[in-house]
Amino acid sequence: MWNVFRAELTKLRRPSLSLSSIAAVTFVVGLVTSLLFLLVDSPEGNGERGVRIGREVLSLPDGLSIGFSNSAGLLGIVALCIFAAQTAQEYTYGTLRNLLVRQPSRMKILIGKLVAMKLFAIAMVTLAAILSIALSYLFAGVKDVSTVAWSINDAQMAVLRTFINVLIATIGYGIFGMILGLLFRSPISAISIGVIWNLIIEGLLSAFITNIDKYFPGQLLSIVAQGGNDRISYQYSLFTSYGFLVAAFIIVAVLFKKRDVAN
Amino acid sequence: MSSPLALDVADLSKKYGDRMALSHANFEVPMGSICGFVGPNGSGKTTTIRMLLGLIKPTTGSGHVLGESITEPEKYLPRVGAMIEGPAFYPALTGLQNLTVLAKLGGFDVDSIQKLLEIVGLADRGDSKYKTYSLGMKQRLGIAASLLPNPKLLVLDEPTNGLDPAGIQEIRNLLRKLADAGTTVFVSSHLLSEIEMISDHLVMLRLGKVIFSGKTSELLAKQLPVIVAKPSNTDDLNKLVKIAKDNGHDAKIVDQNVHVTGAADYSAQFNKSAFDAGIILESLTPIRPSLEDTFFEMTGD
Ligand SMILES: Nc1ncnc2c1ncn2[C@@H]1O[C@H](COP(=O)(O)OP(=O)(O)O)[C@@H](O)[C@H]1O
Ligand SMILES: [Mg+2]
User: Which of A8, A183, B57, B77 is least crowded, fewest Cβ atoms below 10 Å from its Cβ?
Assistant: First the structure.
């Protein structure tokens, strides 16, 4: 498994993937954090689905990490796409047969990939945290949001808590991507189904049907990133979303173990 | 039977839907040999190789690789190098990085990669991305990857596909060298002519069935020499066939010539019989058909 992990890192380190991941994380965090501050006075709202987050909230100790936690849903989509592609490509490139000749234990391949994905997610979320904090300070200056409370201990604890929650969410989306990649064995189908499911099906249905997001793993993961909300608790979101993911992962892992590798 | 076997399969089959991709195959490959695995496209070579490497499960039968059952590939794969169904690598990684991925995965020495690139003639292109490689370079990288474990058994699926004659010759030389150093080589091709001269063993497939398995010399022994006779008057073709058959030799007409089965020492007598029958022969040439022809003779093509 350790060998699989090291081999995976060699693939994940390639400049084309690192640079495009950095670009995607920068774009997502930049968009969410800048809109959060720049639209603070807009009646249309500055948070997800038109939620208004006013100056008084932004200037609380937690205000420093709101941009970061609000980015989690889109960061998750980025992670989903990357890991759906990383997994499905082994089939379309035909490289899976090489991997399995060098490491016949299919479970070790899967777990090594999972661990490498987690490390990649840590790097993504770290970058997102740094960018979001820097942008929060920058735009707070622009929009006259008080940052006094951001330097107290509570603010640092909030950032740490948010970091862990966003990481749990991002890894959840990464697992979601790997499940789709293993199931569909083609990056295009895995990514498009993942994006359509999360943004369109989950996103639209949750906007129109109250409380349906209680049953959607993607929605629940972004609630995990926010530490729970007033309708759905943190614990419920965490256990339900990971319950779905673990069950689905076990099913695809069994399929992966049994299925002929004939391409 | 006494020499140890690198490979053996018994009653091995694979069914995809209704089609038997491989049907009740039996063959053995002795340790230390170069074994050619020959059959037209779609005859089941890749399917067999996938079963030998634990990638797909047989529908019936069993097999052993380096003395271990194919149901436990983890016991022998660390000593096996393989290229299956042509080369497959990550296009965005360089040749060197692609080999690094596989070396790390197998727990092999990453420092040996440069030497392998030299062996296959890619030393100066190791830092180029795989997607910029020509088909021949891709094949060479595939062969380099298969050499990573310093294998006891090398399984190569159509390694000469897409290579020019010089490239094919290089691969043959490399395989000969590896075999001389003690590696068993199991190499597939859809063209017998590409591997017959280096193979001391052959397994031949057709439509999923093994039609020959044994020493190349045994197949050579089945090659019947032929005398090609060309009469000056084509009306005599049928008479010549009758003369040969009366003398107990098989004969048939092939484009204005008569092909008579028989060794060169029969040609003098055949010439005399034709002369006695008043037939003038323009030419009379004993030939040895290629293995390819013998192969197709056996398979009825
Ligand atoms: N994954 C698969 N699903 C269905 N049929 C297959 C599959 N792989 C191979 N076949 C069929 O099995 C037969 C043998 O194929 P293959 O082993 O690839 O032949 P070869 O390598 O000798 O060209 C062919 O008829 C092919 O169409
Ligand atoms: Mg083939």
Answer: B57
